[in-house]
Amino acid sequence: xxxxxxxxxxxxxxFSSAVVSRTLKQAGYRDVRVVNAAPEALKSLEExxxxxxxxxxxxxxxxxxxxxxxxxxxxxxxxxxxxxILLTAKESVEALASAFDxxxxxxxxxxDMTKQLLPRVFAADRLANRHNTLLDANELLMEENRQxxxxxxxxxxxxxxxxxxxRKRLQQALDYTESRGxxxxxxxxxxxxxxxxxxxxxxAVVSELLSGIARRLTGLIRPLDALCRVGDDQFxxxxxxxxxxxxxxxxxxxxxxxxxxKAFKTSRGFVSLEAATTLCIATEREPLPTVExxxxxxxxxxxxxxxxxxxxxxxxxxxxxG
Length: 322
Fold this sequence. Notes:
about 325 residues, alpha/beta, 5-stranded parallel β-sheet, elongated
C-alpha cells in the first residue's frame, strides 16, 4: 500500500462520497480529494492528476462514462494514466461490457461497497503505478530518440558526416567568413547513374563503392575540410579559405578528377564512376547567404553539372541569399 497514492472521489451524493473518503483515510491513504460533480473533477485533475479516480456512474450534468471519456483525453495530453473505478448499482453484463468499452477499469457495486472498496483500490494502486511507470519510460525513450536524431551527425554507410553535420559545418564556415574574412566554399558532388549501379550490383559491392568513394575523397581534401554524404548519391565538401582568391573551382578539381579518372576496385572487378560537381562560394565582400540559400544554389548547379559532366560554379540567387 502506498499512503501517498493520489485519489479523487466524485459523487453527487455527499453522504456516499463521505463514506468512501472516510474509509480510504482510515485505511491510511493521506492524499484523498472529494468533489461532488464531474466538471469539478475535471478541473481538479487539470490542476493535479491522480492515480485513482472513484466516481459514481449516475451523476447529473455528466455521468461516469462521460467523465471517463474526458479523463482519457486529459491523460493522453498529459502522458498519464488514471485508473477509473465506477460506483454502480448496475449489475447487468451488457451495462458493464459497454463501460469497459469506454475505458473504465473497474467497478464497485454499491450493495457491497464496504467489502469491495479497499481491495479494489489496493489493486488499482499497483496497476496505475505500473502503467504510469511504463508511460514515463516510453516518454524518456522517445526523448532520447529525438535527441539522438537531433545530434546524430554520422552517415551509417560511409562513416562520413551526414546532411545534419554538413549544414552545421557550412554554418560554421559562414560564421568564420563573417568574423575573419576569406571565403566559404560549398562543393556538391553527384554520382551519375547511381541508381543503375545500385540495381546492377549486390549490396556488398554497393557498400564497397561507397567506402571507396569516402576513402578517396578523404585522401583528397585538406585536413580541416568537412566531407559529408548528404544524399544517396551525393557528397559535399565544406571548406574555408583565408584568402578568397584561393576559393575557386580549380582548388577542388582534384576531387572531381579523383572520382572520374580512376576506377574503383570491388569484389566484382573494377567499376568506373562518373561524377558531376558544382561549387558555391560565399565571400566577405558580399552579404553572406544563409545555409538554405547555398544549398539551393548547389542543387540547381548540380543539374547543369550533370549535363556537362564538368566542375561548374553555382551562382547564388540574390533574392534568397540575404
